[in-house]
Amino acid sequence: MGYYDRLRGFLAIFLRGLFMGSADVMPGVSGGTIALITGIYERLVHAISKIRFGFIKPLITGDLVGARKSLREEVDFELFVPLLAGIACAILTLSKVILFFITTYVAFTYAFFSGLILASAYVVYQKIDGFSLKNLASGALGLIFAYLFVGLNPIQANHTLPVVFISGFVAICAMILPGISGAFLLLLLNQYEYMLGVLNRMAIVEIFTFLAGAAIGIMSFSRVLDYLLRNHEAVTMSFLVGLMIGTLRLPYNKIAMVDTTSIIISVVIGIIGFALVMILESRFDYIDY
């Protein structure tokens, strides 16, 4: 592979990271959904599940050559470096923007989220091979679960470091699962606005505590998800479609409270969100592993 092809591949994955990071700071939208519609989802889950920290033992014993070899075998650097760079850039730059829109233009912002979620559900549905009662039951289960989950009231949790750690653990699992928003889970745990504030003021202790919880969460959950996608793909995808449709309860509740004129504008904004996802899906190619 030449220099130009590598640079092009790096930029393509970096762009996916930007979109994923943007989704991860929006309650109601999952970064996993963006990974799925941009064709990188299965490679991402598989790459995370491959990391088993086998490089630590030779590193401790001073075998740097062995540690480097093990590290390159376990870690997909060509995926993780540009992807994480894109996610980090999006989160750091968009956290203030999203906080402004979600507090100032509530209905319009959630209308946009609705369009994104509905289109994402349609894209995932297209990836399901064949129709069966098992897939239908799985989708219905996902819908019911998400609908009831979204209706939960936020927990009045404090902002101590153990709670921040648990929040990172729980949120990251949702962030790689299409249909469940990690940011929405942070809302339920009463940590969303607090963590946005942590990012804006660059509170290092809280950020590293959150990232530690996220690292442990993603390493454990990715193995389960990788197994399901490899052995029960259709059923898993059907469940994810149900999850996405069920989470529409959240934006619907936000939009339903406004006047008729605002509802019309919200519908237009939702259509724009829907169209954006369809354009993204048509522009990005599937990246195999």
Structure notes:
This protein has 289 residues and is mainly α. It has one domain (3-283). 78% of the residues lie in helices and 0% in strands. The chain has 15 helices and no strands. Helix 1 runs parallel beside helix 6 (77-104) and helix 9 (161-175) packs parallel to helix 12. The two termini are 16 Å apart. The relative contact order is 0.17. The mean pLDDT is 79.
As a whole number of angstroms, the C-alpha radius of gyration is 19 Å
Cα distance, first to last residue? 16 Å
Q: Would you identify the regions where 5 or more consecutive residues have pLDDT less than 50?
A: none
- Give the overall average pLDDT: 79
**Number of beta strands:** 0
User: Could you say which overall geometry the principal axes of the C-alpha atoms support?
Assistant: globular
Amount of helix: over 70%
Strand proportion: under 5%
Which class do the helix and strand fractions yield?
A: mainly alpha
Overall tally of structural domains: 1
Total of helices: 15
Let me know the largest β-sheet. Answer: none
In sequence order, what are the helices and strands, one letter per element?
HHHHHHHHHHHHHHH
Write the layout of secondary structure elements.
Elements: H1 3-24, H2 31-37, H3 41-50, H4 56-60, H5 64-74, H6 77-104, H7 106-126, H8 133-150, H9 161-175, H10 182-188, H11 192-200, H12 204-231, H13 233-246, H14 249-255, H15 260-283
Helix pairs in contact: 1-2, 1-6, 2-7, 3-12, 6-7, 6-11, 7-13, 7-14, 7-15, 8-13, 9-10, 9-12, 12-13
Pfam families: VCA0040-like
Protein name: DUF368 domain-containing protein
InterPro entries: VCA0040-like
